[in-house]
């Protein structure tokens, strides 16, 4: 395998199991070779990208050490085959002149449908009902209805009685403004599709303004009002410094006791400890999340799936809301556009 040069690129795909890798059309005289790893951990990254000029990945951490010239001397382009790119140290990339592109809006349909599915699972406590029925509890007790009402004895709401709050962005400081603009299109589109699906089910939809916003956008409702009014709250925000734990104790204290929280954004946007506490104390009715502060998540590193939370109304899925045939095709198409475009001096979807 030849090393990268002015006329040759070596591409390394760090997570081939989740990618459909297309054929690339680099302009003459450029040529390329490639190495595909089924999956890569953060510890394996430095060794595997040493001879790469282009790397593509979906989620593994690429830190400043991996991005140093000593570790990855040939690196010129990183393609995030995902919308989010918080796993890549963008500042280190900027210092070296490494271009970072992502594949935005590829999973809008899948993620929005997953969000609605998780809402139903949490609101109707479907998983608990399934497990109880399989375990023979229905036959043993004769009536299970009282096991699936809220703590105050209230039966679940139907869609016609839901107020769906859509939170599409948080408070954004000036230092993060460019990153926010890059991600805004995704959050708006995802929020709009969730809103469309919720509305078609009969829910009243309200869309949140930015947290602590002083603007007067007539199409949006103040963040604090959305928190108080919503009976189901969909979170679809990018992970920025300003959105870390931006839904925490104060927000849970303000929510309806019948509220269900659905998070399909990024782990770290919702305070996991505060969420568990709110559920345990009956501050809200249920929660569903596809994302976690630490991933992969398990009982050892996430309070949401810890042993002492197993009796709480929490639906947890392993960051697979994006999984669909349409998403796979979209990712492959945008991966090809990113690499082909960059090789022609016309990079697309650049985030750094």
TrEMBL record:
It holds the Pfam family 2-Hacid_dh_C. The keyword Phosphoprotein does not apply. This is D-isomer specific 2-hydroxyacid dehydrogenase NAD-binding domain-containing protein. Residues 189-321 form the D-isomer specific 2-hydroxyacid dehydrogenase NAD-binding domain. Keywords: NAD, Oxidoreductase. The keyword Oxidoreductase applies. SUPFAM superfamilies: Formate/glycerate dehydrogenase catalytic domain-like, NAD(P)-binding Rossmann-fold domains. Gene3D superfamilies: NAD(P)-binding Rossmann-like Domain (3.40.50.720). The lineage of its organism: Eukaryota, Fungi, Dikarya, Ascomycota, Pezizomycotina. Signal peptide: none annotated. Belongs to the D-isomer specific 2-hydroxyacid dehydrogenase family. InterPro entries: D-iso_2-hydroxyacid_DH_PdxB, D-isomer_DH_NAD-bd, NAD(P)-bd_dom_sf.
